[in-house]
User: Fold this.
Amino acid sequence: MDVFLLYIEIIVLIFLIIITAWYVHDKYVQRDHQLLVNYPIIGRLRYVLEEAREPFRQYFGDEKFYESKDKLDWVYKAANDKPNYAAFSPSQPLPKPKFMIRHANIVLNEDEVDNDFEVTFGETRKYPYTAKSIIARSAMSDGSISPEGTRAFVRGAQMGGFPINSGEGSVTSNFFVTHKTYEKGYMKIVHGTTFAKKVKDVVQFFFNGAMAADVYRKLVFKDDPEAETYVFDLKSQLFHRVNWDAPLVNFPSEVPKDMPDIILQLSSGLYGARDKDGKFDPDRYQKTMRFCRMTEIKIAQGAKQTGGKLAAHKVTPAIAYYRNVRAYTDVFSPNRFPYANTIEELFDFIGTLQELSDKPVGVKIVISDIENIEPYAREIKRRIDAGDTRYPDFISIDGGSGGSATAPIEMMERVGLNIRDSVYLADKVLQEFGIRDKVKIVASGKILTPDDIIVILSLGADFIQIARGFMMSAGCIRARYCSGTTGHDCPVGLATQNKEKRKKYFVYKQAKKVRNYHNNLLKSVKGMLAIMGLKNVKQLNKHRLLFLDKDSRVHDNIDNVFKRRLDIGKDLEDEYHESR
Assistant:
């Protein structure tokens, strides 16, 4: 007993010495934090709570950034393929004003609603693209997203049968994780030694496949900085990556069927279509497009009206290889797309891409007012009247608030309309110019749940791209550490290049959740169409909506609602003819 008390006394003494030294340091030595001078030790609680604020924010109180916590819960339940029903009432009802849907007097059973969710882009091109789903995973670059995260998205898209946007980081090796039927003519293949394979088998037997692949990669490539640019196939036990130096004739003439439908995003950095000097490389672009269905030129993205920015610590040797840049240097793309000094120049470049790929090409923009869409419509109309086919096959419109991961905070609430206003305005302008049937509208921006999709499609969109929802389905807990510039990394390994975090990410498990989220979105969209009495998603239009304003007044004329919300001005068709 005496020995035990002695130990306790020693521990208490050590504790008091540490606290005293800490007190003296905070009050008399350090001069970084004013608060600690007045409140030594206890003042540090402020910094502890500040650190915990973001990663734990969503677990306390009502949701402030999205419309309600219920919507976030819907995403996570859908990803886990769990029933999505609320008991008694919503925990956080949607705030007003809000759009409501018109239900039918005689509703349909869900089996009476078509399973046809196809959307065709570029009908006049040699190789038009018919997406089998109205939903795609929006642009997220391999680099901003970890290699393991990208593989999960690719596998999920392949299993779910929906398109995936490459993001401006281009089509990296991680987009080829499902591609097994490749030819040696365009792939570089690396074999491991018999010893390395035996070691891999032992590690896999005692641990897991991911750890075994990691050990095997180190044995095969040793200190090669580009080791991560090779994809490992556990069944064939081979490493492979695309050999972009192979001649174009060696590349597949059709997109391989064991790959998901990829939309190539081409940013101002021209990644995936540039030479080592940063100039556009037609040959590289054509090779990349052998694996993609269409091209989206990124003019703008959400509040991020600047070029894409990837901090130096995220530019690993693998990312540098993919983008033709130097490793561990900031990769900041120019604000302006290099071939878009005018709308006319941009459309001419679109024509160049259409000719090189024979596939649809579109642009991604953000809308603040009518001046952001009207010049596009006017030039499309002029070219169609002149028999010129060099114009966008689709216009992707992003909502102005935030981004899926990072954007300058000073722009997040100051740049761009929300996606509902943007889609309505774009649809109206294209109709006024008589070209709506020539151009598809793609929408993205805080679209999470089936009701969001119904509203956006009713307002005029043909196709939906979702970033945040898919991020959450892939394991994102919204800790808001995506940029990695705060000294913290994504805690789940999804949006970081930190190898310690990345290698613990469950690729196959999260891929299934990505697939589940997409499938449950479509399933619930069908359910909503049924109560609206509609057999097909193409029957949606603005007359299927009502608007409940902040005073609970119901408005059944959506045009009048937006007329008050947006100062659209005089009839655009008259303006067009006056300008000629």
Notes: The longest helix spans residues 2-29. The radius of gyration is 27 Å. Residues 569-580 have pLDDT under 50 and may be disordered. The CA atoms of residues 366 and 372 lie 8 Å apart.
